[in-house]
Structures are given as C-alpha cells and as structure tokens.
C-alpha cells in the first residue's frame, strides 16, 4: 500500500509539472489559434477592404547592367537577385528580396513577395531600370488568420507551430493521465471524455459529406 501511494505521488507530481509547463508554453498560442479558428470559420461575417500601395523607382544604371550581364551569361529563369541589387532595393523601397522566388525574361525580372495578411510583387525592367513594387494589405485580421494557417510565414513561424503542436500534445496527454488518476473520485470524468470523442465523430459522420 505504501509503495502504491509513493508511486501515485511520484506520477502526480511529475504529471502536474509537465502539465503546467506545457500549459504555460502553449497558452498564448492556444488563445491565438482559438480566436483565429473562430474568425476563419466565420470569414464571411467579417468584411475587409484590401489597401493597395504602389511604389516606383529607377535602378542605377550599373546595377541594371549587372542584371543584364547575369541574364545573358547564366540564362537562369529562377536565379536569385545579386546581393548588391537586393541591398539597393532594401534601402530604396524597404523591400526584402532575399530568398524570394524570381522569374527572369529578356524584358524584366518579376519577384513574388507573398506575405501574411496580403500579397506583394516587384518588377525590374531590364531595359530602362524602372522598378515597380505593389503591396496589397488585407488588414490585421487577415494577417492573424494567415498565421493560423502558416501561409507565407517563413521557416521560423513554421518551427514555432511545430513546437506549439508538441507542447499542446504534451498538455493534452498529461491532462488525460491526470484525469485517469483522479477519475475514481470524479464519476463524470469518462462520460465527459467520451462525449468529447463521440460528438465530433457523429458530426463528421452525419453532416460532412
């Protein structure tokens, strides 16, 4: 009996510790994903008017010549922009093109700049050096919805989602084990757990086709 009590106390202590640590780690993420889950589910209720901003600039002739030479020498339709060109675009238009997808042709370079909550693109005319940048902003709600979906968010956010998912799984599993250990004194435990399983299962079977 004493051995069983010690074993129970050991597991309760460690399960509570893992439960609260995982809860602390994923608390903000759970709030974010819960709210954006609701807004995504009712996107038609929430209107948003995109705002489009256009910038224009003229690239210095030496940089244009460098781009033309690169295209004539390499002919790579997906080649990344040279560091000097990327630096100039960052300073002149506050646009980051590092690691972005590009499309080269004889006339121009097109750079796709998708982002959470909107979209953007940039073109460089290889004849006269004219640069056009267009940014579409769909608002903060669209931004957070895209964070929920991991849309155009980059590798750092993708890693965060993986870590959050693992922490949420630890939170759920330790919670289930704690329910098991306390179920003897709480007769409603397993009916509630069963309801949480059966209800979405029935909804999926009966109403999703």
UniProtKB/TrEMBL annotation:
Transmembrane regions listed in the UniProt entry: 20-40, 159-178, 190-208
Pfam family, one: PepSY_TM_like_2
Keyword Transmembrane annotated: yes
UniProt keyword annotations, A-Z: Membrane, Transmembrane, Transmembrane helix
InterPro entries xrefs: PepSY_TM-like_2
Keyword Signal tagged: no
Protein name, as recorded: PepSY-associated TM helix domain-containing protein
Organism: Steroidobacter gossypii
